[in-house]
Amino acid sequence: MRKNVIAGNWKMNNDLNASIRLISELKKELSDKNPNVKIIICPPFTSLETASALIKDSIIELGAQNMYSEESGAFTGEISPNMLVSVGCKYVILGHSERRTIFNEPNQLINKKIKAAVKNNLAPIFCVGETLSERENGITFKVVEQQITEGLEGLSETELQNLIIAYEPVWAIGTGRNATPEQAQEVHKFIRELISKLYSSSFAANITIQYGGSVKPENSIELMSQPDIDGALVGGACLKADSFIKIVESI
Ligand code: 13P
User: Fold this and answer.
1) Is 96 a catalytic residue?
2) Domain for residue 251, yes or no?
3) Helical (H) or strand (E) element with 40
């Protein structure tokens, strides 16, 4: 059975001291009283090593927000998959819409990054989602299908055993305007059917598909109760311990 996964994408927030404070608060409240939920935090690179030490012996797991697709070399400012593994990361967010739009990452680069992640035993949290104009033009499914087929090209079911997909409609990110549970469910169902066509129905049935975009305690119960929504990728609301914990508890 697939597991619900709540992941906090801290984005470019929290220096080292603020990271230590937030993790201490989370650790106090998050125990194994929620065995059905996997909890992941994705702090900035500069806090990863410390975060890894702090979450030892807790149920919180560690992810990074990005990485480069090469193992090493002259790529100034980039971080390799193995570097993330060496500081205790088990997950990495790839293809986030902020990477796609602000840093011009195309599907082909995201595909290379996913390949590099699985080669290094990092589980990709692979983000997809349409912009507002794409939704208004009625091409949401087409856009998401292209992101998924190009992003996963050349990858086998075995290689993708730990893949998590996050559906994040761009118009819902950081805007306070979440997709309605029906809008999100419709795309999640589409993604699961697409994965079934590209791979197999058993693989599709077991894959975790998170929703992301203005998830908060006020809307998480309704969103999480949809049949094809298996957790959340949380931005703004993960920066305060109490709201992140409430979202975890809504599962
Ligand atoms: P918000 O929850 O702030 O809308 O951000 C969502 C997101 O981008 C998570 O990756």
Assistant:
1) yes
2) no
3) strand 37-42
Of 125, 209, 215, 239, the residue with max ligand 1 atoms within 8 A of its CB, to mutate for a pocket test, comes to 215
**CA neighbor of 42 nearest in space, from 229, 209, 235:** 235
Kindly report the pTM of this predicted structure.
Answer: 0.97
pLDDT, block means (10 residues), the chain with 251 residues: 94 98 93 80 98 95 98 98 98 98 98 98 98 96 98 98 98 91 98 98 97 96 97 98 95 86
Which residue type, as a one-letter code, is found at position 118? V
In DSSP terms, which residues pair with 212 in a beta bridge? 233
Residue 249 counted as domain residue: no
Helices of type H across the chain: 16-29, 45-55, 81-86, 97-102, 107-119, 132-136, 140-151, 181-198, 201-206, 217-224, 241-249
Q: Residue 91 belongs to what H/E stretch?
A: strand 91-94
Catalytic residue among 61, 96, 130, 134: 96
Residue 244 lies in a domain: no
Catalytic site residue 188? no
Q: Which domain covers residue 162, as residue numbers?
A: 4-29+37-239
Q: What is the CATH number of the domain that holds 69?
A: 3.20.20.70
R_g over Cα of the chain: 17
Q: How many domains are contained in the chain?
A: 1
Instruction: Flag whether 150 is in a domain.
Output: yes
CB 44 within 8 A of CB 12: yes
- CA dist 190 → 1, 135, 142, 183 (Å): 19, 15, 10, 11
Residue with the nearest Cα to atom 7 of ligand 1? 235
